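#struct-help
A.M.: can someone run this one for me? Single chain, 382 residues.
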Amino acid sequence: MMDCKKVLKLIPQYIDGELDEAQKKEFETHLENCESCKKEYQLEKKIIENLKNMPPLELPEDFNKKIHEKLVYQKNILEKKKERLKKTLTVAVIAASFILMTVFVVNIFKFDKSSRIESSAPLNNIKMTQSADLSKKEGINNEVNMFSITGQRGLPAGTSRKITKNATISLEVEDVNVCYDKVFKLVKEAEGFIESSDETVFTDNTKRINLVLKVREDKFESVVSQIKEFGKVTALRIDSKDVTEQYYDLKARLKNLEIEEQKLQDIMNKASTVKEMLEVESEINRIRSDIESMKEQLKVWENLTRLGTINLSIRQVSKVKKPTTLVSFKGIGRDIKQAFINNVNFLIFFIKKLIIILAIVLPYGALAFIGYKVYIYFKKRR
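D.P.: on it. Structure tokens below:
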């Protein structure tokens, strides 16, 4: 038995006589028993009969021409859009390839230039006597007190180092007062202070200022590095001394003396004669004197290791004016030869880098060419 949904679907086929005998009989049986489907059938039948009785519509004479023009116009627009998209993608790929190639070449030249600069860097004319090169320490937070001391005699792991740092710097500048202001500002920013200063004026009205600076141990290298930039360095000396073992050895001795003092104090309280009391008191006074001396020494070491000392001498020098001289042609042959060699070297270097670039790019170019050919092949098949 057909349901209403199926009957409604089959109404057009029934009207056109396209149903077989079994479907037609089942369809008619359903219409006899279902009033709503019967009404829907009669409505559709009436609509179809009215459409059949309508006179045919006459199309305009130029209808086909206009349809053809519209189809051609839409096709042209679609082709233009495709062409524009293709050009945009091509330009984008070329631009991206050019940018990547430029960055690659610049990095190659930059690397080669930096390598040549590093290999031909001149030696420093200033003689510095120090245990390690300061330039290797600049910019590095050298917190040596954070390293654990393992394996040292009498010191447990995790014990902080005690290192004293001292520097002696001599500078020549054109304006002593300006340099002094820079140093003062630098030391203040480094949470240090100027311990002492003295100024000397010479007969030629030039000055020299001697300063003793105290800066935090962790900012010592940074301050020294920046002071070097304030003028011409004529002398530089940096000394570091590790007093870790002495410091903790003295601290242990101090603790033992304090324990001994406490024991003597207990004996003093138990002394029964004046003689015993005097002898014990004399020993206590001696131990107390040693304790105070050790405490002072520990305090000195703590201050020395907490703050670095910089002895700075700033001397004013007059600016020497170089006399103007005529430029001669002396050595022009040597200069031409050197220029020619430089140009040939640059050409060889450029060709070498170009070969390297081609060796890197060619595999990608081959892959791109293969991909393009595959794309054209499938495009033609469509």
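A.M.: thanks! The chain has three domains: 4-49, 66-121, 128-316.
D.P.: also worth noting: The CA atoms of residues 171 and 233 lie 5 Å apart.
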